[in-house]
Specification:
The protein has helices at residues 16-27, 44-54, 70-80, 99-109, 133-143, 147-152, 177-183, 197-207, 226-236, 239-254, 256-259, 261-282, 287-303; strands at 3-9, 35-40, 59-64, 85-90, 93-95, 113-122, 157-158, 163-165, 172-176, 211-222. By secondary structure, the protein is of the alpha/beta class. It folds into 2 domains: 3-126 and 156-224, Alpha-Beta Complex (Spore Coat Polysaccharide Biosynthesis Protein SpsA, Chain A), CATH 3.90.550; 227-302, no CATH class. Strands 1, 2, 3, 4, 5, 6, 7, 8, 9 and 10 form a 10-stranded mixed β-sheet that branches. Helix 2 links the parallel strand 2 (35-40) and strand 3 (59-64). Helix 7 (177-183) packs across helix 8 (197-207), helix 9 crosses helix 12 (261-282) and helix 10 (239-254) runs antiparallel to helix 12. The protein is globular, with a radius of gyration of 19 Å.
C-alpha cells in the first residue's frame, strides 16, 4: 500500500514556519510516506528546499499553481498522486510520531472505511464559547443552532474504545484514493474564501458507500489561532466573511437530504447571527451585512444545486 502525504497551502511567507514544523513531524514518523506532495499557490522552490532539508528517502513533489483555490489545488494534487492512501493535511498541523502508523492500523481494523479521521487537537482555544460566565453561556446556547451540534454529533457512533464512526472530517485525515475518486473529489464550483469543503466531500464519500472512522490514537495538533486570524482578515476586508459563509452554507444546503433541511436552516441562521459577533471582533460593522448576505446567498445556491 503506497502512502501519499499531501500538504495544501497558500505558500505565503507567514506559512513557512508552520510548514517546516509539519514536515519535521512527517520526517519523524514510525511509518514513513512514500511521497510528500506540497500543493501551493506560490513559493514552490522555497518549500521544496524546506522539505528536502528534513525528508530523506521520500519522493518530494511540489505543485505550484499560481492561484489560490483549495478545491482546485487539492484536486490537482490528488489526481497527480501515486498513493493508495492519501493523507490530506492542512499546513498548520503538527503530527505525533505514530500518526501515520495509527491511521493505517485503523484501516486494518475497519477495512470498509473510505477515510480515517484523526484526533485533531486545537492548541489555541479562542472565542466566547471557551469562556465562563454569561457570555460563554450565550455563545454555547447560540452554538446549538450550528449544524455541528444540531445534526453531526447525533450522527456519530462509537465502535470501540478508540474508533468512532463519524459523518465528516477536516484536513487531518487519510482517505483511500478510490473513495476520493468515486465521490468526485472536491466541489470546484466555489471560489475563495472557501469554508466547509471537507464536510461536503466527507458526506459524498459516505453517500458513495464508504464509512468514515475516527481514531483517537492518531493525534495532530492544530497551531493556528483561527479567531485572531479571522478578526484581522475581516477587519481589512469584511467581504471575505460573505464569501466564507456563502460557501459553507452552500455546502450544507446541497447536502440537506442527509443533514436535514431544518438543521441547515438553523445553521444559516446561526451564521447570520454570528456575523454580528465578527463585526465586534473585527471592529468593522460592515462584516455584519456581509455575513448575513453570505448565509442567504449560500442557502439559495445550495438548495438549487444540481450536484
Amino acid at each position: 500500500m503506497r502512502i501519499t502525504a499531501l500538504i495544501l497551502t497558500s505558500g505565503t511567507r507567514d506559512r513557512h514556519l508552520l510548514i517546516r514544523a509539519l514536515i519535521r513531524s512527517l520526517s519523524r514518523q514510525t511509518v514513513m510516506p512514500d511521497e510528500v506532495i506540497i500543493a501551493t499557490e506560490t513559493a514552490g522552490g522555497e518549500l521544496a528546499r524546506i522539505a528536502g532539508e528534513h525528508l530523506r528517502g521520500v519522493a518530494i513533489r511540489v505543485i505550484e499553481t499560481g492561484y489560490w483555490n483549495k478545491c482546485w489545488t487539492a484536486n490537482k494534487a490528488i489526481l497527480s498522486s501515486r498513493g493508495d492512501v492519501i493523507f490530506l493535511l492542512e499546513d498548520d498541523l503538527y503530527l505525533t510520531p505514530n500518526f501515520i502508523e495509527e491511521v493505517l492500523n485503523a484501516f486494518k481494523e475497519c477495512p470498509e472505511a473510505g477515510c480515517v479521521y484523526t484526533n485533531c487537537i486545537w492548541v489555541f482555544r479562542e472565542g466566547a464559547r471557551s469562556r465562563g460566565g454569561l457570555m460563554g453561556w450565550l455563545a454555547r446556547a447560540l452554538g446549538r443552532l450550528a449544524i455541528h451540534e444540531s445534526a453531526l454529533l447525533r450522527m456519530a457512533r462509537r465502535i470501540n474504545d478508540h474508533l468512532i464512526e463519524v459523518p465528516v472530517f477536516t484536513m487531518s485525515v487519510a482517505c483511500k484514493r478510490e473513495a476520493l475518486l468515486r465521490a468526485g473529489l472536491y466541489d470546484m464550483r466555489v471560489r475563495e474564501p472557501i469554508l466547509g469543503e471537507d464536510f461536503d466531500l466527507a458526506l459524498r464519500i459516505r453517500k458513495a458507500g464508504y464509512r468514515i472512522v475516527q481514531t483517537t490514537k492518531a493525534i495532530s495538533y492544530h497551531l493556528t489561532m483561527q479567531v485572531t486570524k479571522g478578526a484581522a482578515r475581516y477587519a481589512r476586508k469584511p467581504s471575505m466573511l460573505m464569501g466564507a459563509y456563502e460557501t459553507e452554507v452552500y455546502f450544507m444546503a446541497k447536502n440537506r437530504g442527509v443533514l436535514g433541511a431544518v438543521n441547515v436552516i438553523s445553521h444559516a441562521i446561526y451564521r447570520a447571527v454570528e456575523a454580528a459577533v465578527w463585526g465586534v471582533r473585527a471592529r468593522n460593522p460592515l462584516a455584519v451585512p456581509h455575513g448575513i448576505a453570505g448565509s442567504i446567498k449560500g442557502f439559495i445556491t445550495g438548495v438549487t444545486s444540481d450536484w
